[in-house]
Design goal:
Number of helices: 14
CATH class of the largest domain: Alpha Beta
CATH architecture of the largest domain: 3-Layer(aba) Sandwich
Number of strands: 16
Number of domains: 2
Shape: globular
Mean pLDDT: 96
Distance between the termini: 27 Å
Largest sheet: 7 strands, mixed
Strand content: 15-25%
Bound molecules: pyridoxal-5'-phosphate
């Protein structure tokens, strides 16, 4: 008997490449059929076969309040009843921009767009236009969306420029991007010593969340700030994932660093397509219509999407919101870690605010090479056993996990108990 999930996936593959509209959803790294989701409420989602899961993906980060929060849904519905899009300015966009500038002191001006990819692509163009330079530094394992300049992997030598990491990206574009190791401030200093006068920008995930979770050494972020200041390069914090996920002041507040430009997405849309880039006034003054750097969007600042985002940002300002979110995220990590330890499994876990990393490796990784040392087979077994037991984690060992305010202590205890059982079976029955 084939399940509805399987039927849908077969249908999907006939009309959508790989059956999905974003590659990680296809379960290629873990194998099997992805559940097709029918609905979500709070901490849970339900698939086409009627199976319910405790969700630790949260649409890859945006759903910090859980699924279908009544106030967020009502805000979007109310906005929808007044019209879906105008392509003209609306008051709610101003409210959103005012709120973002108030919550993040590094933002003097901010522009709304519809995806994180657009935000980072535009921030890079702006940094290049502002500095009149072409070169870009990024870090191995960080993901900044799928624009050409950013789909680049390290070249053959330490300080050689990059190669495309995707088909369709001209080598001539990748050549402008230097890819260094995350947390390696010496490499950054060397790169600036060699190319500083030509470097337009450094773009970094201040807490990396697209190679599983890799926490920054505070000195690493400080060194990026110092080098960019010294050479007049633009420091871009890509906070599409960390923004309002690791705390109300984002990662820049947590680590006390003032970037020149910040990109936001995910949480600021509350599950709808809203992203943003913003920063220092003199840099933002170079963007159209004020300056020569072009950027635009038919649906930018869409009133429905902004209503959902604004409502989310209002709710996460409740006193103690992030204290509670962080407590629960830590409890989940500590619980699974202790369960693994009881069964002698090489495992570690850590969290920053409401995002977390689980690693089949005895120590938390500090860069991409260390993430690659995690036991991928052990992860795949864990992933599928947890999915069968009704606990939905990201279908790849290279993704972070996300807690929501809707997860209860009982939910977390259930997930920890399920993990304990999975580890017990793996060890006693062998794999
Ligand atoms: C998700 C993500 C992006 C891309 O955002 P999309 O909305 O998927 O285009 C960019 N940067 C970071 C750090 C992200 O986590």
């Amino acid at each position: 008997m084939t399940s509805r999930n399987q039927q849908f996936f077969e249908r999907a593959r006939k009309v959508i490449p790989g059956g999905v509209n974003s590659p990680v959803r296809a379960f290629r790294s873990v194998g099997g059929t992805p559940p097709f989701i029918v609905s979500g409420r709070g901490s849970r989602i339900t698939d086409a076969d009627g199976k319910s899961y405790l969700d630790y993906v949260g649409s890859w980060g945006p759903l910090i309040l859980g699924h279908a929060h009544p106030k967020v849904v009502a805000a979007a519905q109310e906005a929808a009843s007044r019209g879906l899009s105008f392509g003209a300015p609306t008051e709610i966009e101003v409210e959103m921009a005012e709120l973002l500038c108030r919550l993040l002191p590094s933002l003097d001006r901010v522009r709304l767009v519809s995806s994180g990819t657009e935000a980072t692509m535009s921030a890079i163009r702006l940094a290049r236009g502002y500095t009149g330079r072409d070169l870009l530094i990024k870090f191995e394992g960080c993901y900044h969306g799928h624009s050409d300049s950013l789909l680049v992997k390290a070249g053959s030598g330490l300080l050689t420029f990059g190669n495309p990491s995707s088909g369709g990206v001209p080598a001539s574009i990748a050549q402008h991007t230097l890819v260094l190791d995350y947390n390696d401030d010496e490499a950054v200093e060397q790169a600036f010593a060699q190319h500083g006068e030509r470097i337009a920008a450094v773009i970094v995930e201040p807490v990396a969340g697209n190679m599983n979770l890799v926490a920054p050494r505070p000195e690493f972020l400080q060194s990026l700030r110092a080098q960019c200041t010294k050479y007049g390069s633009v420091l871009i914090f890509d906070e599409v994932m960390t923004g309002f996920r690791v705390g109300l002041a984002c990662a820049q507040g947590l680590y006390g660093i003032h970037p020149d430009l910040t990109t936001l997405g995910k949480v600021i849309g509350g599950g709808m397509p809203v992203a943003a880039f913003g920063g220092r006034r003199e840099i933002m003054g170079k963007i159209a219509p004020l300056g020569p750097v072009y950027q635009a969007g038919t649906l930018s600042g869409n009133p429905l999407a902004v209503a959902a985002g604004l409502s989310t940002l209002e709710l996460i300002q409740a006193p103690g919101f992030f204290v509670e979110l962080e407590r629960k995220t830590k409890a989940l990590c500590a619980g699974i870690e202790a369960a693994a330890a009881r069964h002698g499994i090489a495992f570690s876990a850590q969290s920053v605010g409401g995002m977390f990393g689980l690693y089949f490796r005895s120590e938390c990784p500090k860069n991409f090479a260390e993430v690659m040392q995690c036991d991928q087979d052990a992860f795949n077994l864990f992933f599928h056993a947890m999915l069968d037991a009704g606990h939905y984690f990201a279908p790849s060992p290279f993704e972070a996990g996300f807690m929501s305010a809707a997860h209860s202590d009982t939910d977390i205890a259930e997930t920890v108990a399920a993990a304990e059982e999975v580890f017990r079976v793996q060890v006693t029955e062998g794999r």
